[in-house]
Write a structure and sequence with these properties.
Layout: H1 2-14, H2 22-43, H3 58-63, H4 68-75, H5 83-119, H6 122-127, H7 129-153, H8 165-186, H9 191-201, H10 205-212, H11 214-217, H12 220-245, H13 257-265
Helix pairs in contact: 2-5, 2-12, 5-7, 5-8, 7-8, 8-9, 8-12, 9-12, 10-12
Length: 289
């Protein structure tokens, strides 16, 4: 089975250049992801009771909540008239978030697969798994958040809060690594794409700062992750135009290059053994020595 998969990869690597239809799926699901993200922004509570402004949004503050005091800062104390409304909005947003996970998972996985079809780099094929891992971690995180909110509504403390940091960190790291794969792939595609790839790679550094100090840098996660998503959406639009309007691939790949290298390496080497060493100039017996 491993040999068959390896042979399939080699066939794909050496196939003639052709338009990549995966850009269509990437572009369509990218648009759905962007539109549903705007919708979720209207569903989740717009402001918290007294959270630190460095989180940016209440939903990010909830993802990084570590104790009951953090929950009170998000939803408000027991006498807060807005507590019930915040809890209801957060729960509704978390329930609809499962649709968002499906959309962005397909969007990013299709984009990585489309990049692999263009560039034929094996690590891009492996990168297809990253958004799937991120979506699964997000789903587990969402389940924990719903349990935490249900317990808080009853005036209780949920013990699953101790497990919350792990899927949150894994999700953001997987999404960041996906952006790194997208940005680095762009760096292989030409001068203008290199500039776009740089704009995607640099914000990825903010993820580490946000995970270490979320109360100060949590707001950077939206921009850091969003940069890669926006870049991939633009690339998918251009790739779809190349495939549909010009019937061309986005990258002019030369599949015969490895064969040329093999042909060069197969040339016989010049032997420098003592008995066959080449002599330059006149030999000693020719000079009468």
């Amino acid at each position: 089975m491993t040999g068959g998969f390896h042979d399939w990869i080699e066939v794909q690597r050496t196939r003639p250049p052709a338009p990549t239809p995966w850009w269509y799926a990437t572009f369509i699901f990218g648009l759905f992801t962007a539109l549903f993200s705007v919708h979720l922004g209207q569903v989740f509570p717009a402001e918290a009771a007294a959270m630190h402004p460095g989180y940016g949004t209440p939903v990010l503050a909830l993802e990084f909540a570590r104790n009951e005091a953090d929950l009170f800062a998000i939803f408000g104390a027991e006498g807060d008239p807005m507590q019930v409304a915040r809890l209801a909005a957060m729960r509704l947003g978390n329930e609809q978030d499962y649709i968002f996970m499906l959309l962005y998972g397909i969007f990013l996985a299709s984009g990585c697969y489309g990049l692999w079809r263009e560039l034929r780099l094996r690590w891009l094929l492996a990168a297809v798994a990253l958004p799937v891992v991120a979506a699964l971690c997000d789903a587990y995180e969402n389940w924990l958040l719903l349990d935490i909110q249900a317990a808080f509504t009853l005036g209780d403390y949920s013990p699953v809060m101790a497990s919350l940091p792990y899927p949150v960190a894994a999700k953001f790291l997987a999404l960041t690594l996906t952006n790194v794969a997208i940005g680095y792939a762009m760096m292989q595609m030409g001068r203008w794409w290199q500039f776009a790839g740089t704009l995607i790679l640099i914000p990825c550094l903010a993820t580490i700062m946000a995970l270490i100090a979320p109360a100060a840098f949590g707001w950077t996660l939206t921009a850091a992750i969003g940069a890669g998503w926006f870049g991939l959406l633009v690339m998918a639009a251009i790739g779809s135009w190349f495939a549909l309007g010009r019937n061309q691939p986005l990258v002019d790949f030369e599949p015969d290059a490895p064969r040329r290298r093999e042909a060069v390496s197969a040339e016989p080497e010049v032997s420098l053994a003592p008995d066959r060493r080449r002599h330059f100039g006149r030999r000693g017996d020719d000079r009468g020595i």
